[in-house]
Design a protein that fits this description.
- The protein has about 220 residues and is α/β, with parallel strands linked by helices.
- Helices cover about 25% and strands about 20% of the residues.
- The chain has a single domain (about 5-215), classed as 5-stranded Propeller (L-arginine/glycine Amidinotransferase, Chain A), CATH 3.75.10.10.
- The strands form 4 sheets. The chain has a 3-stranded mixed β-sheet, with no helix packed on it.
- A hairpin with a 4-residue loop joins strand 6 (about 155-160) and strand 7 (about 165-170).
- The protein is globular, with a radius of gyration of 18 Å.
């Protein structure tokens, strides 16, 4: 069972449009596919036994490019970063796990659980963001990887900037001690769910919750 903090109505208020991002960054995959290291605690990931890796990558790029066209059609600004072919990074399409932005020009780099995902962190990407946007504060929390503490960006946290609340589902990728430090550093409060389900392991918070203008699911 879950703690009821996620559904307490007293915590909610309508989101003004100022909290909605005006631009999206996406990483176009170069080696999308099965990641054996992350699959160890991701029950939703399994190896495709009868589909070649090249075909999986091809389909991923087709889907990615189609989505970009849809976003442009709806006048949504998108910054597309091409993943580098080497080293191979099967999860590079999910950059929200290693960095996110916050109001006031904050750019946060996070400690990652899987060793082979830490190579997704790219200085050139951060430098491009610094040139194209108003970055006033770059924070790198990667040092906690050496201590075995992890907090994987907006995969670990749903952040309500207006109410200064962080919703988080605790897991191997979201450690409470580090979440405490992060929340305190930014003057946010936390609403936690302790994952006790035995049949399905929800290792990222967006599987449990999402927020949008006037909507919480």
């Amino acid at each position: 069972m879950y703690e009821h903090a996620f559904i307490e109505k007293r915590c909610l208020k309508l989101f003004p449009m100022s909290t909605i991002a005006s631009s999206i960054l996406m990483v176009r995959p170069a080696s999308f596919g099965y990641n054996a290291e992350t699959a160890a605690n991701n029950v939703f990931q399994s190896a495709a036994k009868h589909i070649p890796a090249t075909e999986i990558q091809k389909k991923a790029v087709q889907e990615f490019d189609g989505f970009i066209k849809t976003l442009h059609k709806h006048k949504i600004d998108v910054t597309v970063i091409q993943d580098t072919p080497m080293p191979v990074k099967p999860d590079a399409v999910f950059p929200n796990n290693w960095f996110s932005t916050m109001p006031g020009g904050k750019l946060i780099v996070y400690p990652m659980y899987a060793v082979n995902r830490r190579i997704e962190k790219r200085d050139d990407l951060l430098e491009q963001l610094n040139k194209e946007f108003q970055v006033t504060d770059l924070q790198d929390w990667s040092e906690f990887e050496a201590e075995g503490f992890f907090l994987e960006g907006t995969g670990s946290m749903i952040i309500d900037h207006d109410n200064k609340l962080i919703y988080a589902c605790l897991s191997d990728r979201t450690h409470k001690s580090l979440l405490d430090k992060f929340a305190a550093a930014h003057n946010y409060k936390q609403l936690l769910s302790r994952q006790l389900m035995k049949t399905v392991y929800l290792f990222i918070t967006p599987m449990l919750l999402c927020t949008w203008v006037r909507v919480m699911l």
